[in-house]
Amino acid sequence: MTKVLVAGGGTTGTIIATVLKSRWGDDHEVHMVYDHSKPGLGVGESTTPAILTYLDIIECPFEEVIRHANCTIKLGIRFKDWLNDGSCYDHNFNSVSEEEVPGVYHKSNGTFGYEIANKFNNNTSSYSPDYLDDNIIPVGGRGTFALHIDASKFSKYIQSRFEGRIKYIDGVISKVITQNNSISKVILEDGQELKYDLYIDATGNSRSLIKHLHPEWVSRRDCIPVNRSLATSVSNPDGPVPSYTLSEASKDGWIWSAPLGNRYGTGYLYSTDHTSDDEAHKRYSQWLKKHHSHTFTDCRTIDFESGYLKEQWIGNCISTGIASGFIEPLESTAIHTVVFQSELISQFYPFRVLDYNRGTYNQKVISLCEEVIDFIRLHYYTRRRDSKFWRYMDDTTPDWIVELGEKAKFDFFNGYDLRNTRNLFDHNNYSILLDGLGLHTPRGASYYLQRTKIYNIAKEVHTSMMRVKAKNRMNVMDHRQYINYVLGFQSQGDHHY
User: Fold this and answer.
1) For a FRET experiment, which of 41, 64, 100, 260 has its CA 20 to 30 Å from that of 316?
2) Could you tell me the fold of the domain covering 3-74+148-221+306-373?
């Protein structure tokens, strides 16, 4: 029987441990070690639809998570003032599923034809903006969505579902003994010695396990200089609940806001190379007062650096989550990465471990990191130059982004234009972003339709999907009302989104 130790009791450790236990069953032991007295960050976290994949793996209805972990529905991300003109654009999930339009969906290479048709016909893509503007969510449809989660409550609730299946060890790691580029044992502060076949580091920036194997850090700070966050929460027990994560550009960075059931988790992210802490505090305080009538009194300061470990799996130790790397959270990719890592580990282990397994794992995770870095960096192609920060971002725009921007004016972005292997962001995501940045034009969409001779297919897709969207639009619910509705039931499966 393989014995696995997951170090870290936060969101990352919880996801990794529960996926492995769900995939492997009782043939292998999975234990977690962490300081049970140490409080979690407790701020809101924005996710991608991968959170629902995870809940399916562990057989947990998302309604139960809403009920126990203060969660809300997320239909996408709203980007505000990135062009420095007060405008907004939405990076929404697809509101129409493949199952709802099976015939035309495949004809159009998934939703791609829909995005083309929408642009050509001057229509909106994905969820209509009024969903987001009116704080409503569709119910009964099969569109894609994600969750905003309270990280601390989420972890505690999920762990409670695995009581008796996963062993939870209360302790603080004091020593890590290594031999032959692997971990031989872990010693806790109380003297307890822990010996396992596989060690998984989910300890965040401390990297309590993997650091003893001396991995090389690959910094991408030159590309993404944002490296500090001020985070706090704002009470919202009875007010409207948005169905999106807000990412609002500021003079020196950007502000995020994720709605939870009874509060907002918010934060201000900036680059210490381009602004002072005093100036960042001032701007964040002004924003909080303006949007939430909140007096800035208490916040957490979180330092980070965008980058990743060159070797994420060394010997018998695998780093996961922030311990393996971190990319600025502009697209809420942290939990997505953890779910991706957990699935890879479940496939590569506990079968015979070869150097090939480690190499393949490292390559796949790093590929995802680079894919996220590319997509995040594209968000900054706004041509703003109103501060030291934005002048730096404009002056250091990678050549491939400049060239992509020029192409987008005359042709439609497609799958062949992707620089990295598609793990998370496909051509639809890029098209939405390029459109939001003002780089796509009706001329480019028209040219693509004519060049590829798929105008009729795109029109068919557009017509079919708009019909489904109109139908779904007739069955909506106020987001706060929906949350209260779910909270009113005590048994699983009472209501389905």
Assistant:
1) 41
2) FAD/NAD(P)-binding domain (3.50.50)
